[in-house]
Design a protein that fits this description.
Layout (H helix, E strand, L loop, with lengths): L1 E5 L9 E4 L16 H9 L4 E5 L6 H9 L8 H30 L6 H17 L1 H10 L5 H19 L4 H12 L10 H4 L7 H7 L2 H10 L6 H9 L20 H16 L10 H10 L7 H11 L7 E4 L4 E6 L9 E6 L5 E9 L13 E5 L9 H4 L8
Amino acid sequence: MQKKITIDQLRPGMYVVSTNRSWISLPFFRKSIQNQRTIDKLRKASVTDLVIDLDRGVDVEIALDSARGDLPAAGSGAAIQRQAEQASQIQTMVFQQTAELMEEIRAGKMITEEQADQQVGLLMDQIFEDPQSMLCVSVLRNANEIVFDHCVNLSILALFVGKSMQLDEVALLNLGKAALLHDIGKCMLPKEIINKKGRLSRSEQEHLRQHVDRGLAYLAKMKNVPAVITDFVGQHHEYLDGSGYPRGLKGDEISFYGKLAGVLNAYDAMIHRDGANRPVDPRAALGELKEQVGRLYDAKAFKWLVDCLGPYPPGTILMLDSGEMAVAFEPNHTEPEEPKILILTQLDGTFRDQPLPAQVGEAVGEENLERRIVTPMTLEDTNFNPLDILAKYGHKSA
């Protein structure tokens, strides 16, 4: 059943079928309304009247009742749990839609920038709404499709970093698209190579390296592709010392966004390695990258990443000196070694019903206990996935 409403009646949770404006003039728009920011953007784009689908979203009365209902206090464990659940749902949606997009490319079809805008715009909205939950969920998710998941994870990371760089909305959208499309050339390679769990043979590695040139060739057929996208796609495997591919570019022959692509791509690959390589925790990944700054990676690009994430990036699993397990949630730029964390277990080792927000070094909880970080961990080091607690969406433990 469909119903006509005005922009003043539009609320998160509704599903929009049509508006008084052409879809082409609303490239950022997704039909499922996730947050107030989308509503504000629609209003700014002169949308005044809409048609909603009551079978796929909430009605006006339900949305108003929900808005008046009891919501968890901001910053509470319950509120963060809700945020993480929403972040996971959005990422699942984008993963599925990106997979469909990549299959179109595999089938030889040409996609448009507007299709990529749809995916990245949805991620952007949530990055502005709740960047910490988005990055946490991205880090902790188990990959099902190596290529598709990596592209979405890298887009989230690029948006997170780009937001801290204070890029304007157009530049941020282009950076997010560049990351989402950086591996499109892999869609044109045999699945048995790109999804192989073990180590690739030398011939398979040479075949895989073709994905950069194939991606650039595909982009060349599209109209008015921004330079940031071609640089990101064409240079994300180039290294400062010239040992990268496909061109063996050196130093400033690589554009800034090419250098940034190299750093972000390497970081995400380290924390989400496939079966051929054991993943490392985010803090260790930053340490590995730092060792190669100046030889492989650009110092300025690396600094943007570190300044944004802190020494314990959001999503890092932590063992505390209390014996409890936690997840780093938000960097502390004043005291970088004391990030905001979410404590997942109790002193007796059982899981909490809701995560307990805390600042490292500050006494919180019924125990009024100060906690310190003992060591970061990976999913492989634990017998559970924190997403089972942070976002209850049916995710299976690692």
